[in-house]
Amino acid sequence: MTDARLDALAKDVFDWYVQENPLFATFVGIHAYDHLLPDGTREAPLEELAKAHASLEALTGIDPKSLSFGKRIDRGVLRNVLRLTAFEIDELRIWESMPLGADVVGGGLFPLFLREFAPLPERMESITARLEAAPRFLEESKGRIRTPVRVWAEIAKESTERLPGFLKVIQAAGAQALPAPDRARLGEAVAKAEHALASYTRWIGSAVLPTAKDRVGIGATKFRKLVRLRELGLTVEEIYGIGTRYLRQSKRELARLSGEIQPGATVEEAKEIVKADHPATFAEAFAYTAKAMEDSRRFLLERNLATIPPNEELRVIETPTYIRHVIPFAAYSSPARFEPRQQGFYMVTPVEDKPEMLREFSYAGVRNTAVHEGYPGHHLHFTSANRNPSHARALSYATEAIEGWAHYCEDMMKEAGFHPDPATRFAQMLDQVWRACRILIDVDLHCGRMTFDEAVDLLVREAGMERPGAVAEVKRYTYTPAYPLSYLVGKHLIRDLRDEVRRGLEPSYSNKFFHDTYLYAGALPLKYMRELFRYKVKELRRLRSAGA
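^ thats the sequence. predicted structure below, dont judge the formating
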């Protein structure tokens, strides 16, 4: 009976988000609200805050001791989600400081345009309706900004200026797919949306930027609280120590690998050798990326490392123009939870007018990134987690579980024999240096110990990143506190958890058991993933002792 109460509360919270936020509904594959944009007024996040507080109060009335084990996990996960939501709205208040109107409009169009869950004309009807709602939403969203931050306003202005390029792509597709009346409606909606976006851009320039404050972090007190609410089981100092330790170890490993790449080579010389081995054009880099994805999927099946769910599909596409300034290289967009066709997108950013960026598409680097983003990384994780029926877990996107898993896969696949050559391992170690730098920057930037330019310099100096890419990276770090640290901290925690599970199950341990349990549990905070594994290990040992 108590299990049912917990399920009902989790479903109530989930359904509230579906009804109040049409973009969330589209994201999870519930398409009854595809024609709508959310309420853009200041009252909307405050209503979400009230819902989070009310749901937390209801959750306290459900005694965890009265729940079955799986529902105790769900209760902890739901509490984690609600507490973080309340903190982000009430204390971080980035929604008051960053004009997100264009990002919301673009985010509402992107999955409708790319995901083939319905015929294009049907999706175009929803796209047109959302475009028609865009001027209203953009105007409403202006009322949210009370304490603008300069770097965030500059990022928002750039996003707004780029979005019309995506609208042109949509309109061109509509010209091929729609009858004349619908084409005319779409064209009018695009024109009005472009006008509203131009007005929004001018508003940022004339009303937001002149009053914006020059700060790049959320402050040490809020950052520490955010880390506590994430339930990582680590203090900020311990997290920083992990970053420092991995940076030191990774640089030693790079030095060792350099000699394997070319006898007597320094790290910088080896880096030049690895990065110089890249496709001659972006078209070739794009094609090689798609091949690397397929190769990693095939390897996973051949080595029986994890179970790939049915109906999954991964498409490699060019990054849409309006988000290229925050995705300098590549990124992954996950499939909708409730759509039968589990279609993910791996976005690769063209080099445009920066041919030096082709160095970031070295063959070794692409192989490593494909593992992180595709198989068995993000794509396999999300398509597996989407099969878990829990509404509480459907709300959970614990970044250390998500990014940590993808980073863990880079190690695991090399250990299993997928491209363990020195160049690919060197590229992997370069990425690990980057992830270690992310920890240091994340902590120092938000605790007020590092400037924006110092963060860029650190990525260029230690991670060997090209400066344009480093600038784009640090821009993203400024408004995603405690996210950049998730990659390496998550991998560290997952490796520790795997070692603990292996010790508990020897000699019956298998990587497939560990991977499938992790993948199909959902994107849970590592605290609850650890509880889940400890319960499973205990049960398996009990059954083994009983001779079952």
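DSSP finds 22 helices and three strands in the chain.
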